[in-house]
Amino acid sequence: MEGDKGNRYGKQVAVVTGGNRGIGLEICRQLASSGVTVVLTARDAERGAGAASTLGQQPNVVFHQLDVGDPSSAARLAGFIEEKFGRLDILIGMPWTFDLPFFVLQHMRSSIIHINNAGITGTASNVDDPEAFRLELAGMDLMQRIEAINRHSTEPYEQAEKCLNTNYHGIKAVTKALLPLLQSSSHGRIVNLSSYYGLLRLLDRVFNTLHENPYLVDNWRGTVITTSS
After folding, report:
1. What does each of the 229 residues of the chain score in pLDDT, given as a tens digit?
2. Which of 69, 79, 105, 197 shows a CA-CA span of 20 to 30 A to 96?
3. What 3-state DSSP class applies to 188?
4. Cα–Cα distance, 69 to 66 (Å, whole number)
5. Where are the domains of the chain?
6. Which candidate, 124, 201, 118, places its Cα nearest to that of 159?
7. With contact defined as beta carbons under 8 Å apart, do 96 and 104 qualify?
8. Which positions ≥6 away from 228 have C-beta within 8 Å?
């Protein structure tokens, strides 16, 4: 069966953004083991090259630096792929802008897998006692943890701007740069990963928050909710 998979996918080329750790790295591993040629990308060149080296037994993995927030970086990646492969079959978009404290990520390890590579928020923590907060989270389910983290977080403008530049503008710019190469494939595919923060069941909370904001006029409040839906 492994041989069959290799024959089926062996001539395909995939790009994985944020491929140096977590879900991204495992996707690179799985694609490579199926015979796909994988371009593993990461913003940090040293970490990205190190991640690629951990897949050293997979000769069909190459590394290329990519900062999804920099259009010129996306253009360089597109030029590299065009010169080396002439086309692109699969683009997996996994931006990483996740600024919750590391101890929170560790504590939520069992559920963080769903949001590991999605840039979901631009927050700054105001937790004074990390260990006490860790214990507070211990008896909570996922939704309770999210609420608790939100209570201990702020959303500075700079962080929100970084979040939007990465999660929306960044992934859009990368897709735009690579789209001509995807169109050169007879079966090009784009996969963008989301997170728990994108669940529709969270919209009620967003709606209530917007209604509590006295500075948001009704027509704009409705626009935000409609767009979110």
Report:
1. 333 444 444 589 999 998 888 888 988 999 898 889 999 999 999 999 999 999 977 789 999 999 988 999 999 999 999 999 999 998 887 654 444 333 333 433 322 222 223 344 556 667 778 788 888 888 888 778 878 877 877 777 777 788 788 878 888 889 999 999 999 988 888 888 776 655 666 666 666 666 666 655 555 545 555 554 4
2. 79
3. coil
4. 9
5. 2-97+164-196
6. 124
7. no
8. 203, 206
